[in-house]
Amino acid sequence: MTISEKVAYIKGLAEGMKIDESTNEGKITLAILGVLGDIAEELEEIDEELDELAEVLSDLEEQVEELEEEIYGEDFDDYETDGDDLYEITCRNCENTVAVDMSMLEGGTVNCPNCGEKIEFDIDFVIGDDIDDIDEIEEEKEDNKNEE
Ligand SMILES: [Zn+2]
C-alpha cells in the first residue's frame, strides 16, 4: 500500500466510525487526517518529480557516453585503465579532468576543454603509470636550456 492508499483507508475508517466533528477529539482527529492527506499528496508529487529527474539524468548519461565514443572512439575506457601514453591532469580552475598525451605534455600547457583556462603542468597533478617518463621530459627540457 502506498502512503496515499493508507491515508485513504484511515479516512474511510474515520467515516465509518462516524467521528463527531462537534467534539474536541473529533475536530483534532479530522484535522490530523486532513494534514495526512496533504502530506501524502505532496509526497506523490515529489516522487513523480524525482522519477522525471532520474529520466533526465539517464538521458544525459547516454548522451555523454555517445559523445565520449565520438571523441575518443569506442574503447574510451581503455584510456583510463592502461594509461599507456595518456595522463590525467586536473584543471585548477574548474577541476575538470583532462586526458593528455605525450605531445601535449611536451608542449608545456594545454587549454582546458571544459572552461578554456590554460592548464600548466605540475607533476603533482599528473596521475599515470609512467611518472618516470615525465621526469625524463623534465630533464630533457633542462638539457635543452643548458644547450642554449
Ligand atoms: Zn577548466
How many domain modules? 2
The helix/strand series, from N terminus to C terminus, equals: HHHEEHEEH
Specify the overall morphology: rod-shaped
What strand order characterises the main sheet?
Answer: 1-2
- Major sheet: size, sense and barrel closure? 2 strands, antiparallel
Structural class: mainly alpha
Nearest-integer average pLDDT = 78
**Radius of gyration, CA atoms, in whole angstroms:** 31 Å
Helix count equals: 5
How far do the termini sit from each other?
80 Å
User: Which regions have little confidence, pLDDT < 50, spanning 5+ residues?
Assistant: 79-83, 123-131
Residues in helix, %: 55-70%
Chemical compounds bound to the protein: zinc ion
- The number of strands is 4
Portion of residues in beta strands equals: 5-15%
Keywords, separated by commas or semicolons:
two-stranded antiparallel sheet, 11% strand, binds zinc ion, 148 residues, two-stranded antiparallel ribbon, mainly alpha
Question: How would you portray this structure in words?
Answer:
- With 148 residues, this protein is mainly α.
- The protein folds into two domains: 3-72; 76-147, no CATH class.
- Helix content is 63%, strand content 11%.
- It has five helices and four strands.
- The protein has helices at residues 3-16, 24-72, 76-82, 102-107, 131-147, and strands at residues 86-90, 97-101, 109-111, 118-120.
- Strands 1-2 form a two-stranded antiparallel ribbon. A two-stranded antiparallel sheet has the order 3-4.
- Strand 3 (109-111) and strand 4 form a beta hairpin.
- Helix 1 (3-16) packs antiparallel against helix 2.
- The protein is rod-shaped and about 85 Å long.
- 4% of the residues are buried.
